[in-house]
Amino acid sequence: MKPIEAAAVVRYTREDGLAEALRGADALFLYDFLSTALRAAWSAADRLRWVHIASAGVDPVLFPALRDSDVVLTNSRGVFDDSIAEYVLGVILAFAKDFARSVDLQRQGRWLHRETERIAGKRVLVVGTGPIGRTIARMLRAAGMSVSGMGRRARDDDPDFGTVYSSAELTRHLSGMDYVVAVAPLTEQTKGMFDAEAFAAMKPGARFVNVGRGELVVTSDLIDALRAGRPAAAALDVFDTEPLPPDSPLWTMEGVLVSPHMSGDVIGWRTTLVELFAENFQRWQSGRPLRNVVNKQLGYVPSGD
């Protein structure tokens, strides 16, 4: 942040001091990207022109007053694409190769020969066709998997997915998939899209991966569906309540992999987030177009989908 400190008055604050720090501020770097404090402090934003959030998802700050204002909102799109794609490939391999059971058997000192699955040729539906979804698609295709996408509009000539289905037809296309990866942004249209009906449409043996937002899923419906075997397993990196409550059945359910919202967090990610903001600050200061400008009505940075 030193180059920025040399060019501007910089105030550092925690949530409880945000309102005071916002008075007279032109720009806000929301480094705590899970914080919802901006809504409560919004009335103090008397000259704010730009908000940058240190995440790809912008739902914590898309309250009506900001959405309807002239304040420009940018995000950190591009920082997490490769690492989240690696996470998705990793958990798919973990399921196919039964790594969790191998670790359990090793701890028990048991030699139990088993057969495992190939991932090549398995069908994957990636729900969310933004940059992260596209990177996931390319990585899974490189591993030999058959990947299709789901977005706002259907098409058959997408360079990364080939076929993209309309999200309005989610349940129709779930039944033929071996893996379903949720990476859609959280909007009014996507909230709760994975509910009892969606899980019932999955075929026996399917696996579900959520690296998007916890609120994409109706958690109670997912728990019931896992108990019924549709999906057969789930890798969950995000939850509607975080941290995941200690009494959640998801902690101990067989076939469930829980990680604490870390799929994109690789060594050096915090530095990369600051560097992206610093580059955007230089653009803003010189009057050049900002990177990653969010369409506040859609809830994400448009990318042709």
From TrEMBL:
Residues 15-295 form the D-isomer specific 2-hydroxyacid dehydrogenase catalytic domain. The keyword rRNA-binding does not apply. InterPro entries: D-isomer_2_OHA_DH_cat_dom, D-isomer_DH_CS, D-isomer_DH_NAD-bd, NAD(P)-bd_dom_sf. Keywords: NAD, Oxidoreductase. It comes from the Bacteria. Residues 90-263 form the D-isomer specific 2-hydroxyacid dehydrogenase NAD-binding domain. PROSITE patterns: D_2_HYDROXYACID_DH_3. Belongs to the D-isomer specific 2-hydroxyacid dehydrogenase family. PANTHER family: 2-HACID_DH_C DOMAIN-CONTAINING PROTEIN (PTHR43333), D-ISOMER SPECIFIC 2-HYDROXYACID DEHYDROGENASE NAD-BINDING DOMAIN-CONTAINING PROTEIN (PTHR43333:SF1). This is D-2-hydroxyacid dehydrogenase.
